[in-house]
Specification:
Blueprint lengths: L5 E5 L1 H8 L7 E5 L3 H6 L3 E2 L6 E3 L6 E4 L1 E5 L7 E5 L5 H6 L9 E2 L5 E2 L4 H6 L2 E2 L11 H13 L5 E2 L1 H12 L8 H12 L4 H11 L1 H5 L1 H4 L2 H10 L10 H10 L4 H11 L3 H23 L3 H10 L9 H9 L3 H14 L4 H6 L4 H23 L1
Parallel strand pairs: 2-5, 10-11
Antiparallel strand pairs: 1-2, 1-8, 3-4, 4-5, 6-7, 8-9
Helix pairs in contact: 5-7, 5-8, 7-12, 11-12, 12-14, 13-14, 14-15, 15-19, 16-17, 17-19
InterPro entries: CCA_bact, NT_sf, PolA_pol_head_dom, PolyA_RNA-bd, tRNA_CCA-adding_enzyme
Keywords: ATP-binding, Magnesium, Metal-binding, Nucleotide-binding, Nucleotidyltransferase, RNA repair, RNA-binding, Transferase, tRNA processing
GO biological process, one term: RNA repair
């Protein structure tokens, strides 16, 4: 299948192999070939903007060597040139960071024209060329790689930091579509040190453009970043919980603006609302003490009666700050949840009266439970 083709493994697979990290996906560059030749060999075209093909058996991506030239605003404003004349070095030159601009030949030989291996050893994230400033998405990608490799001692090169700032000053960040901003942010939330992503964006001014609600308050942002590692033990989806903890301190209107701007998935937006309501309850209790009305309102607000699976993780979240409050809430919930609509139907309650009586009995149960716990 590959006989006669000049093929190189490129990018992340080469980088992670050199770091000793697991290689999950491999990308390939084909030099000196045409789309017609790839099709004749059974490869399936998948690239819309440039020639990328799936291997008919492994389904790994094989891209024809290409160059890019800036022709518009944003990360899509490029003219792509792919032809058999494009060299491997030219293809690697269009990449963002030197650690992503290495290739490996079939015989294991490393092709490293931009000193990516040296930057790996120096734990340095460095741009390949001044063309870095042509693509605003590279600001986010660089910050995300910092979130991934901070554990290993990586830092962003001073020159690259300056180019990140220059990209922000140019106004290019405004042309990033919400979906791409969120894709990089969601990936960063799943990395070992997501706080490094947001700090890097804040340092270069990108956070002011993309998430101004977070950057408006330095102390609030720093406290939010410290919360990213304080999650319920059985949290299900770490990225969703980290986002919720990041934005829980925002006012409702601020959080909703951010939700709309980034076009967040419903699962992220809804958990963020639940965690914000839980924070509001905890802060109110710290000042005024716990009462049945606030407890009932909180349970109603997180839709606990219909979505009981939401409750236990939020108790765990509360316990990170206030174990007694978590205990009191759990007791109130356990007793109130034992009052079912079916038993009230048997007593003859229907319609609106059923809902009112159900709420009344649950409230009284919670009130009694809290009085006994005092």
């Amino acid at each position: 299948m590959l006989d006669g083709l000049e093929v190189y493994c490129v990018g992340g697979a080469v980088r992670d192999r050199l770091l000793g990290w697991p290689v999950v996906d491999r990308d390939w560059v084909v030099v000196g070939a045409t789309p017609q030749e790839m099709l004749r060999r059974g490869f399936k075209p998948v690239g819309r903007d440039f020639p990328v093909f799936l291997h008919p058996h492994s389904h790994e991506e094989y891209a024809l060597a290409r160059t890019e030239r800036k022709a518009g605003r944003g990360y899509t404003g490029f003219r792509v040139h792919a032809s058999p004349e494009v060299t491997l070095e030219e293809d690697l030159a269009r990449r963002d960071l030197t650690i992503n601009a290495m290739a490996q030949a079939p015989d294991g030989r490393l092709i490293d024209p931009y000193d990516g291996q040296a930057d790996l050893e120096a734990r340095r994230l460095r741009h390949v060329s001044p063309a870095f400033v042509e693509d605003p998405l590279r600001v986010l990608r660089t910050a995300r790689f910092l979130a991934r490799y901070t554990e290993l001692g990586f830092h962003i090169d001073a020159g690259t930091r300056r180019l990140m700032g220059k990209l922000v000053e140019s106004g290019e960040m405004h042309h990033l579509v919400a979906e791409r901003v969120w894709t990089e942010t969601e990936k960063a939330l799943g990395e070992l040190h997501p706080e490094a992503y947001f700090r890097a964006l804040d340092d270069c001014g990108a956070l002011d453009v993309l998430m101004p609600e977070l950057s408006a308050d330095d102390l609030g942002l720093e406290a939010a970043l410290e919360r990213l590692h304080r999650l319920p033990e059985d949290n299900g989806d770490r990225s969703r919980w980290r986002w919720a903890r990041l934005v829980e301190h925002l006012e409702d209107q601020e959080r909703e603006r951010l939700t709309q701007r980034l076009r967040l998935p419903n699962a992220y937006a809804e958990l963020a609302r639940q965690v914000a309501k839980t924070r509001h309850l905890r802060l109110s209790v710290a000042t005024l003490g716990l009462n049945a009305r606030e407890t009932m309102d909180w349970l109603d607000g997180i839709d606990a009666w219909r979505r009981s699976e939401r409750v236990a993780p939020l108790f765990d979240l509360v316990s990170l700050e206030d174990t007694q409050l978590a205990t009191d809430l759990a007791l109130s919930w356990r007793l109130a949840a034992q009052i079912h609509p079916a038993s009230l139907l048997e007593e003859g309650f229907k319609g609106k009266a059923l809902g009112e009586e159900l709420a009344r009995r649950r409230f009284e149960t919670i009130e009694s439970a809290l009085q006994k716990s005092d």
